[in-house]
């Protein structure tokens, strides 16, 4: 640990300094050391404090996110900057049609950004419109069905199945860049494909 | 009168200062480093809660160890339940991604664990709601690694990452530090 070790070292250095050098050097050394040490402690303290406040803000309130990839076009383009809020996730208020950020089921270190098409218990149409026989799947309890708005170019629940609710990190509700598209996000361009279809 | 008002204002300012320092630091510590939790249920007997409902074990949950989602076979981990996101469950890791497990009571006899997933089981087979019911779980649901039992004092111990030999995966892709075939 940084703190006790450095304090012990400081005291040892001061004892050696007092024995070997004269009083002028002693007082200079003492003030310099205490000044630098004090400043370091304060800096470390502030860093820890602000890091903790940042963690609490990003975890419980929300933050700004940059999205990459084509799977949510035209609603969210590549390199758009959006605002995400985490209160809906904590109060279990995610609705159908919300755009959410979730941890990728196959890679927990990366995030995916998709739209919620169905909640638990919903019947999802999983066959293509061109198929003659329609097939349905029910979303299991504790899971959601996610799809990107750009259906041709999106790896989503049609590929890896329903996603557990616990993987959802937050809900995207506002776009702040590019400025030409500033504002709340549009509804899905694909119409409503779930319950009752 | 002016003196007591000054005292109240100074006390209030000191309280706010302390509050905005202490609460975020404590919350971050409990979220990112470690916390404690009481174990309920019989799904991990005899390792946890051998006394049933009479005395629940309290375990130390270490978040820091799983910050990069690195777990070994045999670790006891807590994760968000895939069937109920409000609940956390505590189970043992049996298999990592790429392993083929022989299941107990699952609809398929052999299951290959997909990428980014793990297979978890409770030690008390038959009384455990685990991967044999809901299949492999995504690593993103991982919450913490249970390292020690803290209460009751006669059960103070470090939880070992051992895999019972009959639960070793049939075939494994990744090397592990503990007991791979």
UniProtKB/TrEMBL annotation, chain A:
Its EC number is 3.4.21.-. InterPro entries: LexA/Signal_pep-like_sf, Mito_IMP1_subunit, Pept_S26A_signal_pept_1, Peptidase_S26. SUPFAM superfamilies: LexA/Signal peptidase (SSF51306). Transmembrane segments: none annotated. It is an enzyme of class 3 (hydrolase). Keywords: Hydrolase, Membrane, Mitochondrion, Mitochondrion inner membrane, Protease. Heterodimer of 2 subunits, IMMPL1 and IMMPL2. This is Mitochondrial inner membrane protease subunit. It comes from Equus przewalskii (Przewalski's horse). The gene is IMMP1L.
Automatic annotation (TrEMBL), chain B:
This is Mitochondrial inner membrane protease subunit. The keyword Phosphoprotein does not apply. SUPFAM superfamilies: LexA/Signal peptidase. Signal peptide: none annotated. NCBIfam families: sigpep_I_bact (TIGR02227). One of its GO terms (cellular component) is mitochondrial inner membrane peptidase complex. InterPro entries: IMP2, LexA/Signal_pep-like_sf, Pept_S26A_signal_pept_1, Pept_S26A_signal_pept_1_CS, Peptidase_S26. One of its GO terms (molecular function) is serine-type endopeptidase activity.
């Amino acid at each position: 640990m940084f703190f006790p070790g450095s304090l012990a070292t400081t005291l040892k250095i001061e004892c050696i300094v007092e024995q070997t050098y004269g009083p002028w050097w002693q007082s200079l050394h003492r003030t310099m050391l205490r000044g630098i040490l004090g400043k370091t402690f304060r800096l470390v303290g502030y860093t820890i404090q602000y890091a903790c406040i940042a963690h609490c803000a990003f975890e419980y309130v929300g933050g700004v996110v940059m999205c990459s990839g084509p799977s949510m076009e035209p609603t969210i383009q590549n390199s758009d900057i959006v605002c995400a809020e985490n209160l809906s996730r904590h109060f279990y208020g995610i609705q159908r049609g919300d755009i959410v950020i979730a941890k990728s089921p196959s890679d927990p270190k990366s995030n995916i950004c998709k739209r919620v098409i169905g909640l638990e218990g919903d019947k999802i149409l999983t066959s293509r419109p061109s198929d003659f026989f329609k097939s349905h799947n029910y979303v299991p309890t504790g899971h959601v069905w996610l799809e990107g708005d750009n259906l041709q170019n999106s790896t989503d629940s049609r590929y890896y199945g329903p996603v557990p609710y616990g993987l959802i990190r937050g809900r995207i509700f506002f776009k702040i860049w590019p400025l030409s598209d500033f504002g709340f996000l549009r509804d899905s361009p694909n119409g409503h494909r779930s319950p009752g279809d | 009168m002016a003196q007591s008002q000054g005292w109240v204002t100074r006390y209030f300012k000191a309280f706010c200062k302390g509050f905005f320092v202490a609460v975020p630091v404590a919350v971050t510590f409990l979220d990112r480093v470690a916390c404690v939790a009481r174990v309920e249920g019989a799904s991990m007997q005899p390792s946890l809660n051998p006394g049933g409902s009479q005395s629940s074990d309290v375990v130390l949950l270490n978040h820091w160890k799983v910050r990069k989602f690195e777990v070994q076979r045999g670790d006891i981990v807590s994760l968000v339940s895939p069937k109920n996101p409000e609940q956390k469950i505590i189970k043992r890791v049996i298999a990592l991604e790429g392993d083929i497990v022989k299941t107990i009571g699952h609809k398929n006899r052999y299951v290959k664990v997909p990428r980014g997933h793990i297979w978890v089981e409770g030690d008390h087979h038959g009384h455990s709601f685990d991967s044999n019911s809901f299949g492999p779980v995504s690593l993103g649901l991982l919450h913490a690694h249970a390292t020690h039992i803290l209460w009751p004092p006669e059960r103070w111990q470090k939880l070992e990452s051992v895999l019972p030999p009959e639960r070793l995966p049939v075939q494994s892709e990744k090397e592990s530090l503990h007991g791979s075939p």
